[in-house]
Every structure is written in C-alpha cells, then in structure tokens.
Amino acid sequence: MALRNAILATLLDGEFSGYDLAKSFNASVANFWTATPQQLYRELDKMEAQGLVAARVVEQQRRPNKRLFSLTDAGAAELAGFTTRPSKPTAIRDELLVQIQGVEAGDDKAVRRAVADRMAVAETKLKRFERLRGRLLGEATEAEFLATAPRVGPYLTLARGMAFEQENIRWCAQVLAVLDRRATADDGGDRLG
Q1: pTM of the model
Q2: Closest of 60, 67, 57, 71 to residue 10, by C-alpha
Q3: How far is CA 71 from CA 30, 41, 57, 115, in A?
Q4: What does the CA dihedral 116, 118, 122, 123 come to, rounded to 10 degrees?
Q5: Contact (CB, 8 A) for 4 and 52
Q6: In whole angstroms, what is the distance from residue 146 CA to residue 149 CA?
Q7: Would you tell me which CATH number, out of the four given (1.10.10.10, 1.10.1410.10, 3.30.70.1070, 3.30.360.10), belongs to the domain 3-84?
Q8: CA angle 74, 78, 82 (to 5 degrees)
Q9: What is the pLDDT of residues 138-188, one digit of tens each?
C-alpha cells in the first residue's frame, strides 16, 4: 500500500491542511500506517501535481498562509480502484522477535526489558485508541454507530488497531512469564539454558 492511499482515505473526511492531516493521521490512521509530517507534505505535493488532490490557499492574519487539501474526482477514482485490488497479507518483520528467538545466546534480562518496553508502548497506544473510540462513538452504542454512521471505515480500522495492541499485551505478558520462570529455574545465572 502506498502512503497516497492512506491519505486519500483520510481525505474522505473532508478538507485538511497539511498540519491538520498530520494530526488526524496520527490519531486515526496510526493504528495501521505511520508517516512523518515531512512524508505527508511531500506526498501531498506529488498528489497535487498528479491531480489526485486539490489545494487552496487560506490567507491568515497573524500566521503563515495555509493550504487546505481536498480529494478530487481523480483522487476518489484512484482510491476506488485501490479498494478493488486484492490486498496482500503482511509479514511480520520485528527485531524483538529475533531477539527472543536468540534469547539463549544473549542477555535474557535485556530481552525481558525489551519485551516489557514493548508491552508498555502497546498499553499506551491501546489507551489512546480507547479514547479515540469513545470520541467516535459519542453517546451511541457500537451497534448503533455501525448501523448509522456516514463512515464506518475509521472505526473498523481502529477496532483492528485495538485488537492488535491487545494481542501485543497478551503476548508480551506470556513471554515475560516464560522468561521469568526460566530465569528463576536457571540457578540465578544471567543466561537461559
């Protein structure tokens, strides 16, 4: 998937400045796609040159002028085409898994710290996603929202991000429990064996 497709999907919510798009991207798309503000700005410029988005300048009194981007018909057609293509499954490429794979050859305490850090990051992200879920649902139940909301895609991708982080937390807890049990049974040594 190209960054452009994630931007096009985000612009379905309306017109955004680059700054607001980066904030929205960080809040709603970060559970499945990450990009720096610089990457977003570069991609928006390319997309504007290709006619996928249109930009208009808004003059501001005490701040620099800003450009607001919106989806063009060509951009909507590009996104529609993307949604019809079969998606490719992603493969896990994660340094932490390599560290765990080789834990017996290294410092198991360092690996446990890395797993605990990953778990803390997942817990923080899950809390942020839960707050976003509350804002999206408002006073509606999930069933009401899914039946009546004009756009359900952001909610469904958020639900996937939440499930991903919940699984990360569960898995990290399992790994820590196993490594802790093995360390206790290891006669107090630094390495597993």
Answers
A1: 0.76
A2: 71
A3: 20, 15, 15, 41
A4: 20
A5: yes
A6: 6
A7: 1.10.10.10
A8: 170
A9: 999 999 999 999 999 989 999 999 999 999 999 999 999 999 998 888 755
